[in-house]
Amino acid sequence: MSSCLQLSAMLASAFALSCAYVLPSPLPAPPASRAAAVRMEAGVPVATPMMPGQKTWMPKAEDRAMAAKKWYVVDAEGLRLGRMSSEIAKLLLGKHKPEFTPGADVGDCVVVINAEKCIVTGNKAKDKLYRRHSGRPGGMKTESYEELQRRIPERIVEKAIKGMLPHNSHGRELFRHLKVYKGSEHPHQAQAPEALQFGGLTSTPDSQVLDLTDPDALFCVEP
């Protein structure tokens, strides 16, 4: 009889433990300070801006559209390569506009003609070298300014201007707005480009070219 009572007591205690594990007691109520917290389902109000008086202007989509860009045509005949390239890079970046913003495409489009008539000063025509590599062992090709100007004069102007643009995706996008052609003809008459001329040292002839002619040679001829 005592063994039966002990077995029933053990079963009752085991059943009580199992019920306590399966059916836990409800969680205690949160404190009064947390009871008034806003639940996520109810939505969170929009935070006030940290700088309500900010007046910084940023270019909109219509300011960066192609329809808002002007087209310029530059005649490279007699212009110095480096100085002309720096002025064209400013136009591509949009630094000539009051709404210039770094990293934003607010510049204009530029067409360069007569690329083969661009000049360099001093001995750069012979000393300046251009290198390219095919990607294979021993594939390095080197040529001087004169050689590349005879072969592909457009590449000289393109490399000079591209080196003055940002070296990232923004610079590559700006480079797409540059059109360089050999000769005086270009296929962009539909855009009605405005002729642009540079003054100052950009169009000044090379002062280092030596004139070896003797002005008194005509007066020294023996009869």
Automatic annotation (TrEMBL):
The residues forming the signal peptide are: 1-20
What InterPro entries does the database record attribute to this sequence? Ribosomal_uL13, Ribosomal_uL13_bac-type, Ribosomal_uL13_CS, Ribosomal_uL13_sf
Asked if the keyword Signal belongs to this entry, the reply reads yes
Query: Which of UniProt's keywords are assigned here?
Result: Ribonucleoprotein, Ribosomal protein, Signal
Q: In this record, what's one Pfam family? A: Ribosomal_L13
> Is Signal among this UniProt entry's keywords?
yes
GO BP annotations, alphabetical order: negative regulation of translation; translation
Q: Which GO terms describe its molecular function?
A: mRNA binding; structural constituent of ribosome
Q: Name one GO cellular component term.
A: cytosolic large ribosomal subunit
Protein family (similarity comment): Belongs to the universal ribosomal protein uL13 family.
- Name of protein: Large ribosomal subunit protein uL13c
Species whose genome carries this gene: Emiliania huxleyi
